[in-house]
Structures are given as C-alpha cells and as structure tokens.
Amino acid sequence: MSFVLTEDQEMLRETAMAFARDELSVTHLRALRDAGANGKDAKTRQKLAELGFFGVIIPDEPGAETFGLAGLGQILEAQGRTLAATPLLQTALIAASTLQLGGSPAQQAEWLPKIAGGEVTFALALDESAHFSPYSVATEAERNGQGYTINGLKKYVPDAHHADMLIVVARTFGESGDRHGLSLFLVPRDAKGVTISELKTVDSHGAAHVTFENVNVAEAALIGPADEAADILDPVLDRAAIGLAAEMLGSAQAAFDMTLDYLNNRKQFGQLIGSFQSMQHRAAKMFIDLEMTRSCVGAALAAADAGKSDIAELASLAKARAGELIHLVSNECVQMYGGIGMTDAAEPGFYMKRARVQEALYGSASWHRDRYARLNGF
Amino acid sequence: MAYDNAEQLEEFRLETRKWLEANCPASMRTPMKDDEVVWGGRHATFKNPDSKLWLDRMGEKGWTAPEWPKEYGGGGLSRAEARVLEQEMRRIKARPPLFSFGLWMFGPALLEFGNHEQKLRFIPDIVKGKIRWCQGYSEPGAGSDLAGLQTRCEDKGDHYLINGQKVWTSYADKADWIFCLVRTDTSTKHEGISFILFDMKSPGVEARPIQLISGESPFCETFFTDVKVPKDQLVGRVNGGWDIAKRLLQFERSSISAGGFGGTGGSGILGPDDYAKHHVGIDETGRVADGDLRGRIADHKMYTKAFALTVQRQTEQAKAGQAVGHTASILKYAAAKMNQDRHELLIEALGTEGLGWEGEGFDKGALKATRQWLRSKGNSIEGGTSEINLNVIAKRVLGLKEHQ
Q: What ipTM is given for this predicted complex?
C-alpha cells in the first residue's frame, strides 16, 4: 500500500488545487446559486475538459498507465475544498468505472474516449427511496422484441438535471431487495418516456427525480450480463464511496482551516477566542479525526488502484469516517463562527449544507458501519 | 553496513532469516504469555529458560536495539534493514526478546543528549537487558504541570545531593537505575531542571508500590533522602534538563501509541464482537443481535483500523522524507481513546461475566479483561494526559495562541 503519491499524481494534485482555488471558489458557487443555475455550469465543464480531468482513469490506449483512482481522488479532494459542483464524480469516476468494469468492447470504444474528452456526461440513476439501499430497485426493465422497456421512478439522482446520458439500474428479475436480478442500461436523457424533474437542493448543486414511462432501449444499451449487474455495481459503488470520501476530506479540511483562521482572529473579552481551552481542545480533536480520515481515504484509493481484495471494507471505512468527520467539522464551523456562522454572507453554512448531501449519498456513516460489521462477520 | 540496492537488502533478508531460524527457540515463536514477559535487569527472572537464551542471543547481536550504533552495542542497522528484521521476526512470530524503558525511552534520549562516556557506560547494558531503568518524572505536586517539580538537587562540590519525592514511578521497586528530573535552580521554572541518573541501590532511595483500582501495583512512590550522586551522571548541562525531558516524552508517547497500549488484545481475551455474539446472542443471520451494540463495536473497530493506517501513513511519509509534524501527541491521544473504548465494549459485551474479581465461576479471559478495563483508565492519564496532548496539538501543531 502506498500513501505517498507519485510525482505525476503530485503534480495533478497541485494543478487541481490551484484550479479549484482560482476558478471554483465558494464565491463561484454562490454566484451560480444566486443566478439560479442550480449546479449547471457549462463553462466549468469546458475548463475541466481542457485540463483533461474527465479522463484521469481512462488510458490513452488500452493498457497504458493512468493517474488511477488515487489521481482522481486528488481532484475530487480539491473540488471538495471549495464545494465545486462538477460532473466529475458521476462521469469521470462512476460512468468510466461502470464501463471499464462491465461495458462491452463496443461500448467502451464508443463512450470512454468521449468521457475522457468531456464530450459527454453521465448520471447514475440508482436510488428509489430517500435512503441509499442499492438492491432496493423496483424499476423494471422488461424484455420486448428488440430490447427492453423500462418503467419506474428514480429519486434524487445527482447530475441528472444536466447529464447527457443516464446509467439506469433496473430490475429484470426477482423483487426489490434481491441482489440477483439487476441490470444496467445506457439511456439518453432525451429518450422518449424519460421525464427529468429538476430539484432545488440545499447544497445548490441540484439533482433530479427521473421517471421512466415505457422507455424503449435496444439490446445494445445493456451494460454487462442481464440480472448480474450487482457484480458490476458493487465495486462501482465502492469506488464512488471512496471518491466521495476524498471530496468530503477536502471539504472538511477547508472548513477546518477556515475555522482555525477565525479562532486566530476573532477577539472576545480582549482575547483571541482560539486561546480559550474549550475551543483549543475541540479544534485539536477535529484535527486528530482529520488526520485519521486522511489515512483511511488514502488507503482506500491505493487499494482500489492495486485491486486489493479488502477494497469493500476500506470503502466503508473511508465513507463512514469521512461522513462523521464532515458532520462534526461543518457543525463546529458554524458554531465557532457564532452569529456570523448563521449568516448567508459567510461560508460556513455552505459547507454544512453540502456536508449533509455528501453524508447521504452512497451510504450514510451508519449504513457503512453496519456493512463494515457484516464484512467482518458480526 | 549500508545496502544501497534491493538485491543487497534481499541478501540481508536471507541471512537474517537463516540466523533467526537457527537462534530463535521454538517456544519463543508462540504467543507471549503474561508471566513470561522479560524486563531484564539485575534481578531478572526467567520462568521459561528459552527467554534468557533468546534475550542473550539477540542482545549479543545488538538486535534488541537494531538501529542503535554498533559502538554502543546496538545493531547498527539502517532503517531499511531494521524493517527487514522486523518483518522476518513477524514472519516466524518471534516474541520481542526484551521489554524495556531503557530501549523505548531513555536510550534514544541518551543517544541524543549524552556524552560519549555516558553512552559507553549505559547503552550496552540496555541493549543486553542487564540494567532495568525506571522513570523519575511525576511528583505529588507535579503531574500534568511536570515542570513544577520540586525534587532538589544540590551541588556539593564533588557530588550532587538529592532530596524529594517522585510518584507514579513505574516498576521503581524492580528497577536498577533511575533517570530522574531534578530541580537545580529554584528561582526559575523550566530553566531550573536537570536530567540525572543514579543507582536505585544508592543509600537514601526507597520505593513503595501503590495499589491501583485494578488490584495491581505497577507504580510506586519513590523517596530520596540525601542521595549522593557522582557528578558525571548528570546528562547534558546543568539546568538544561527540560529539553531532554520533553524529547523523552515524545519517545514515551510514541512507544505507548506504537503498541496502542497493546490494544489488539492480550492472550486469552477475545474481541468485543466475539464476546457480544456469545453473551448477547446472534440474530437469524448470525450477527450480533443487539444492533446498537453492534454499531458501536463496528465504530470502535473502524477507529482501530484508522489508527493503524495512520501509523502506517506516517511511517511511509517519514520514509519518503515528507514532514509529518507533531505526531506523537496525536497518536497518544488516539491510542488512549481506542484502548479505553475497547475495554468498555469488552465489559459491556461480557455483561455480568465481566464483573468478576477473582476465583472460580468466571472465565479466565473475562477476569483478565476486567482487570485490564480498570487498568485502561490510566491510559488517558499516564505519559501526558489526553488534555495535555490536546493542548500540545492546539498550540504546537495548529498554532493557536496562549491566553494573554
């Protein structure tokens, strides 16, 4: 296992950090929000494409080296620092991984270069209730003469309000809750029968409920074997959890740095509030949690790239720890800023709002704790 | 010997493997038994004769202190070689030949601050386990505020004269020598402390064990009445002891947290998940039936894993030459929390089975868990309280300011 980045990954990290700082600050998110963009940001998508960030885990030619998930993790951490709304998690990580792990050679040849070039964006349409539960899929895909007909409802799908393509998890066999019987389909957002209901979300990133009403797709739209999608979905969701944990680490670090800065500047009773021990001990505890979470995220990214067998365990570890961390740090950030923390003009609120979305997506801390216990036999 | 390429390191690995195969007795490749731990010293007893053989062989090679200089009896190994030795010992599950405050705390500090003669005199006996050291730090009036210590050390011309009292001196009743913080200037605080060494057999030294809530007595009150100490036994300069004291505390905190207070268990004690399955019961899928307890055990296990990964990350980053900052306090705080949480969960999972004190009617492992649970309460007090470690992190790592 390596916690030490390669020189190339280190350079990528620096580029991503500088880009997030200079072009995707919280001020940028605020401006998008105030303009009613709801997370839609074509200009940023263009810039990300120019930087090559969409193709970080996609080899230029088969078998060539990439920056790996550890490289992409650096970019996600950077965008987490400034809460940037980008299509990278859905497209560069989830869609690219799904196609790499389950796509046919023809699907890979068609889509991976377009993803790498930033020409197409994706959204994974999975959840059907308010809580992550990957096998609880009732959306049906029924065989018809030429392919499949999809009917169902997907809730709170990130990026679905602006993505070009959907990867839909549908049931081709069995009942909601069964691991067996799931299938994955590529569905264009403008396919007949697809209704995208845009949601205004608390974090200003937006999302959408997606309805499928007799949506017909061709046989070629199926990713991987029918009924067996869980074998693709499980590792994809582990990678998604790890990538999101990297983003959350960035958010937590930024919220912590901001809080520390405030503690070192704000005075009450003629004293810097950061000189009070009640503040110092809470700050120190947050820092310990930050350091420990950084280790978990680093280990999970490295394990994913090395194809280790304990990736599921490490994914749950990273997502749960990152969830607890960002929950604590975002709350403490608002609290330690005092009244200023309650104002829309200050940034702590942005971090707290985004934190809850990050915590919920791809499994809450409690979901992952339970899974960790199951993986460890208790 | 410095190996600059992987091939030579591989050669070292083969030699090491061969030597360990030939020299590590079979019984030293079994899990450590509590009553077979070797602390060395003049009065060392070896319940298992193989323990002595193993210590003598390893001590002779300097491999109890692999990276210490050869000229003082250490192994003289590079960091890379020491890691190989560690891996090879783990491969055959070899026990550590020696437990020693000399190896963990005093030796590293003396190598940094002592003069050549002092190193020649004291280091080889640490390596071979011939002298057992204890730590004279805390006093009744100087716990967390360690620099408030009052034990007096007066310059009497050809010797020093020491009067005062230490407390929480681990194993003072079993130790041969003490490294001790003493006051050589009463007009100032931190700048009036010196670091001095003396024989516990010196006239005027008395150690009285203190019984703890766990029933054990690992700590002592230690009294010094007109103890004469030769002048060449003061380390560093007079009134320059505080820097040595702080450095030694870092070694202490690192050594405590490296082992996580032995948080992965002791012989005969199962994990909280195992006890929970047995005493709380399982549901139809074979999982711990109490979902709340299961979640808290999982949380603890994840904390433990995160701790191990953090130790590993810091080691790798240090090796790669990256700054890792003030890590000892972070790890000490986390190790204490981890071990205390573990023992609370053990006791909770055991139920009344974990509430025995001694005798028949209770599982032996459970009895031990109970004693260790009580002992673990000291983890957030000894070697710098958790609160002091948070202070250190806040001020030295995060740069938060002092109250004006």
A: 0.94
